[in-house]
Amino acid sequence: MMKHPRSLLTALALITIALPGYLMAHGDVTPQAVDTHELPQLGDEWLEENPYSPDDAKVLEIGSSAYTQNCARCHGLEGISGGIAPDLRMLEPGIDGDEWYVYRVREGAVRDGKVYMPAMADYLSQEALWAIRTWLVSIYVEE
Question: Taking the model in full, what pTM does it have?
Answer without folding.
Answer: 0.78
